[in-house]
Amino acid sequence: MYPPLSREFPPVFDGHEDFITAIKPRRAIFGPNGGRDFLADGAVSTDSDAERRGHVDLPRAMRGGLGGCFTSIYLSNERAEYNALAYAIDEMNDVFRVADRSDGHFRVCRTAQEVRKAWAEDAFASVFMFEGADPISWSLKELRVFYEAGLRCLAPTWSRSTIFAHGVAFGGNLPATGLTDLGRELVHECNRLGIILDVSHINPAGFWDMIEESSAPIVATHSSVKAVSPHVRNLDDDQIRALANKGGTIGINFANIFLRPDMQANRDTPLDIVLSHFEHIVKLVGDEHVSFGSDFDGTDIPDVIRDAEGLPVILRELKRRGYSEARLERICNGNFLRVAEAVWR
Ligand SMILES: [Zn+2]
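Above are the sequence and the zinc ion SMILES. Below is the predicted complex in structure-token form.
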């Protein structure tokens, strides 16, 4: 049996998790974190970092109050180039098979109502998102089919180029231009179908084109704040205001390089710095536009959080600083579910 979903705080709906890349031996791209079973408990009795495996699995999610997430279908550059469509189907199948084995405790959800029902029944609510529209071709026919399979959030590109948009490069060069004509069509088709658009990873010109083209709220599933850490993947204040005006929300990414003012891959990042990303957005545009976007199993995160069981560490500190239950609920899940209810059909 699995532990019940912790009720210490409202359930967290996390904007971005990469556990799919770690749950099969052949996906062991994160070294010792690879090849584990999402339904098995990765925490061990010694409680040592070295023996805890990865950041998230179902038992640790339940104990940490992590009720669900956008489950990222992420493709390496090689896979995206070789056969993005086949690899995307392969990864989605892996997620469905976790659900099949879970006795109803891990669910692929397609509506906000299904997400809330999962929480009422102590189940994890997984919602498909594509981190890059590489599996979608010019005709957009795949998008329609993936929608039926549960795709409810889409980033037009990862930190590379697609036929739709260009990402911000982690080193190297990518075009600085915005959405292509096909990218504009993709935005309109997502609006029509009811798929949330995600601006994490897109370059600034593409960001502003998406703001202009989309008739629906837009989110940043896993981006942090440039005013705290000047990393190219983070959002500046103008972008944060634009997302807020659009009715969207921003999931704070726990990558040390995106959190720390020195942008170093150093895991001793203090809790205060993590909190300053949340507080900057609250001060700038209010508490209706900030959420979690952990990037669990996709990056190196602060030791003070360590894994899914560390989410209450952040929430306890926000509570200590005077955040009300209603405000915590918006940050934990209300903001993402508000966008979901506005966009999904
Ligand atoms: Zn990412």
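The chain has eleven helices and nine strands.
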